[in-house]
Give the backbone structure.
Amino acid sequence: MPMTRREFLFAGVATGAFVGAGIVLPVAISLTDDDGNPDSEALLYPRQRVASLSELRNGEPVFFDYPLVGQSNILVKVGAPAEAGIGPDGDIVAFSNLCTHMGCPLIEFQADHGVLGPCPCHFTTFDLARDAQVTLGQATQQLPRVLLTPDGDDIYAVGILRLVYGYSDSLTGGERVS
C-alpha cells in the first residue's frame, strides 16, 4: 500500500529532526566554559604546584608535565597583560607545548613578540597573550590552556581546557591517538 502525503511529510520531518539532533547534540555537549573559569570538568583535575611568582622572570619559560606525566606544558610570564593571565600584572599563562598541527614540541618562546614557536615541524607560532591563537603556520587550533590559580607565592595548575594533542581525553590520557 503506498504512503499517503501526510505519512510522507511526517516521515520527512521525523528524519530531519533525528539528523539535526545527531549534529547539534554532540556539539552542544562538547562545549566547555572557555573563559578561564573552571567548569565541572575542570574540578576533576589534580592541583599541582608549578612555580613561584617571585622566581618568574619575563620571557623565561618554565616547563612542566600536567595533568599526566608526558603531557608537557609551558608557563610563561609574558610581560604584558594576557587573556586569562594571573598574577599581579595578569601576565602569567600556561599552555600545552605540543603543536596542535602534528604534536611537535614547542620549546622556543620569543619574548620580544610574545609568541611560542616556531614549531620545528611546520613553523607554526602561537600568541600567548591572546589565548595561544595561531599567528602563523599550519595549525588551525589554539593550544590547550592550563588553568592556573595563585596561592600566596605559589602557582598551581588546576585544570586544562581543550584536548592535548594526541589524546582523546586530557585528564586520564584516554586512548593515545597517533
Observations:
- The mean pLDDT is 85.
- Residues 42-161 form a domain with the Rieske Iron-sulfur Protein fold (CATH 2.102.10.10).
- The two ends are 52 Å apart (CA to CA).
